[in-house]
Structures are given as C-alpha cells and as structure tokens.
Amino acid sequence: TLLLGFPSAYLLAIIPGRAKYFLALIYTVPLFMSYIIKIYATRSILGTDGLLNNALIQLGGIEEPTDIFLFNLTAVLITLSVILLPFTTLPIFVSLEKIPKQLMEASADLGARRWYTFRRIILPLSLPGVTVGASFTFILAIGDYVTPEMVGGTTGFTYGRAISSQFGMAYNWPFGSALSVVLLIVVLAAILLPALLDRLRGAKT
Questions:
Q1: Consecutive sets of 10 residues in the chain, 205 residues long: mean pLDDT of each?
Q2: DSSP characters for 62-123?
Q3: Neighbours of 4 (CB within 10 A)
Q4: Fewer CB within 10 A of the end CB, N or C, for the chain?
Q5: Count of Cβ atoms closer than 10 Å to residue 197 Cβ
Q6: How far apart are CA 56 and CA 58, in angstroms?
Q7: For 34, which DSSP code?
C-alpha cells in the first residue's frame, strides 16, 4: 500500500487549487461502503470470469482463464491492499499538504533539481504521514479474518484466521487466547511506534 499510496498522495497534493480536495473526497468514498461488498467486488475482478482474467486474455498474456488470482494468499494480499489503500494514502496526503510551499520554491531558487528536492525535503517531511498510514494499514490487516475467509481458500491462511480457527473449529481456547495476546502486543507496538519515531525526530532536530 505504501508503493501505491505515496504516489497517489503526491499526485493529489500537487494538483493546483481546490480540485485536490474534491478528488481526495472522492478517494474516501470506498471507506463508507460495506466491507463485505468491497470483498465481493474484488472477488468478481480476480475470479476466472473477472475483469483481470479477461484483460490478460485480450492482451495475450494467457490463453484461458486462470484461478491463480483467487482463493490463495495472493488473493488475500491483493484484496487487503485494495481495501486498505485509502488508510495509507490519506495520512500521507495530509502530511504533504502541511509542507510549506516556500521550501520547494527556495530549493528551486538555489538550483536543486526536482529529485533532490523530493529526496531531501518532501520525503523527510512526509514521514509522519507515512508512519501513521503504514501503522493504520498494518493494524487493520494483521487481525483481519473476514478477507482470508472469503478469498483465501485453503492456502490463504493469516494470523487473524488462525486465531478464529482456534476458537471455532479447533475449540482450543487457551491457545487462541495466547495468540490473541500476542496480536494485542503487536498492535500496541504498532500504535506506539509513530509517536516514538516522531519523538526521536524531534530530539534530532
């Protein structure tokens, strides 16, 4: 989601005028949709009769529909990435919006090229949004068991689904509770990490 979210946020941030805020509002529309509906929509795209298979057939990439995009761990990763992408993009967009435009103008006046300005000014100042967006996405993804259940099949087994199976099929509640405590510790660490990194950056400056 970072590989897709940062370029999307950057493109939104450089759009002039109020159009960027309108597009950012459109970007948030999927957040108000039902989670199950979004999973079913992704399933229809990844399925053997879906948009992805038809596009690959038209482009000559495959000769007949394939099921490698559904009911496996790849399908889980793709579905989670599509659903959780706004949670990564929007914090980065907000962080980019807070960067003073005068810094980029001063960098250009001093002869810096765009890539140098991006690497030395834009990227470091956008790191708070990157850490927040990555933390949001990680927390929502690590405990998710609905998505693996619906698109994972037998091989798309994730941590959240493992916990669910201990309470459901295996009836091993002590082990399921132990796994839940480990998940809780990991989630708390992911929540505290952005604050710790921000404090460290403040101490260095």
A1: 95 90 89 91 90 90 87 92 94 94 90 91 92 91 90 84 87 93 92 80 66
A2: -SS---TTSSSHHHHHHHHHHHHHHHHHHHHHHHHHTS-HHHHHHHHHTT--HHHHIIIIIH
A3: 13
A4: C
A5: 16
A6: 5
A7: -
